[in-house]
Amino acid sequence: MTAPTPYLHLPGTAREALTFYGEVFGCDVQLHTLAEFGRTDGPAEGIAHGYLTKGPVALFAADATADELPVRCEGMLLSLLGTAEPSTLREWFARLSVGGRVVEPLERRPWGDSDGQVVDRYGLRWLIGFEGG
Q: What are the start-end ranges of the E strands in 34-73?
């Protein structure tokens, strides 16, 4: 079974957002412009389809065009619980925090595991954690 992969429509920031996520998670980034796809419903250099490859996180994004609304994350978060070694998860949390907002620090919780939440500079809310402290 394949897990769902988020596909974001961003407000003209798909190129910079995917580049940022690629750097955070150590992924390659593939970008295809509206012009490459023969589309005229936005700026030629706008991103029609982009995605992360060769890394631990799967994510698609494009620039919102025409009648598409850009993503707003309310009542949802992207979970990276136990998806890497604790040191890697701590690094991801720190890097996602730059230009964003820490909602809950990444720290040991009363039940013995560690987690935290951050809203990154593009408005995505992430839950990052691991077993133990």
A: 47-53, 60-63
Point out which residues pair with 80 in neighbouring strands: 128
Cα-based distances in Å from 128 to 23, 28, 63, 110: 17, 21, 26, 16
User: pTM, whole model, 2 decimals?
Assistant: 0.93
Residue closest to 103 by CA, chosen among 89, 118, 121: 118
Dist. CA 96–CA 22, nearest whole Å: 11
The Cα–Cα gap between 28 and 48 comes to 17
Per-residue pLDDT tens digits for 84-113: 999 999 999 999 999 999 999 999 999 999
Give me the residue label for tokens 């957002």: 17
Task: Say how far apart CA 80 and CA 84 lie, in whole Å.
Answer: 8
Token digits of residue 69: 């609304």
Euclidean distance between CA atoms 19 and 10, whole angstroms: 13
